[in-house]
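Form 7-S
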Amino acid sequence: MADSKQIQQIVERAVAQVLDRQLPKLQAELVEHVIAELPAQPSHAGSGGAAAVPSSLVHAMASIHAGTTQKEILRSLLDASAGYAARVALFVVKAGAATGWQSRGLGNDDAVKDFPLDVSSGPVAHAYQNRVAAPANIAEMDRRFIKQFGGPDNEQILVLPLVLKEKVAALLYADGGSSALLDAASLEVLVMSASTWLEVASLRKQAQAHREAGDTVPAERAGAPVQAVTSFPDPFAGHAPKHVARSPEPEPVAEVVEVASAASASAAAAPATDPFAGLSTEDADVHRKAQRFARLLVDEIKLYNQAKVSEGRRNRDLYDRLKEDIEKSRATFQKRYGNTAAASGDYFQKEVLRSLAEDDLSVMGANFRR
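Output:
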């Protein structure tokens, strides 16, 4: 068709604008959805233990969602997983072979780089073929892996598939090392969260590329419901293991995105002015990441303290009721962005006022510091 390319550009532009506005909401909904799917957490070490597990898990998920590039997301996945297992390693799956990418707790981060992992038997094969988490004994693992990296004291391991659009893109190995730290349920949630966020990040990257290319949506076509095929790039495209030849043709995973007429019409509206237009590309990116991270942290507070939020707003003592959660999250934000270009934006404080207090400073109470 003569104008099929033009139609595709029109729709991709519309999708780009819709995604740009909906991404913050999508982040919050993704956190809530994944947490809702969690099994009931057993109590650990006395009262209050069960409540502490989901809270720390959402912090870990927030760190994954703060990433905007594929490498950032995957590194955040490994960093977050290290809080739920003593030793973790990520293996790239290409052309039916798995090779080491990065690890935590097995030496330096590149300890497993290019290590060839046998996917034909044991828990690795089970996770790869069935796309499910595979708990096992270390004795069932690849003998070469055991010889080079040893095993955990309690002999229990876990292999999890990182699935992108029905295809296993990587495998996460985890064990308890000498500490017996191995939280299978939390690791499953983190891997699922990273998988979903990789797809969102891919869509957003494509949307940004179309915006930068200057694609526009003509008004006469904005109301037409059409379809476009959007490809997801391989997050490990830059990883070329020595013993696995590159495929001559990439195998992108595609998803059909339907754009309803109302969404397309809305997307045709002029985009808002970029508040970071005067900054360098690097600094602007840091500011945007800081904003998203602050939003996720505050959304977490709201998620776990709905009754306190309602009572605090009603009695105008919100800060006193949520002080511990607010200051803990503030410290998390400061640790990540307190010494960056985004520090001057004071995004966490602004998000507390916007989201928790609904822009009414008085509901925070007299003890809240501005």
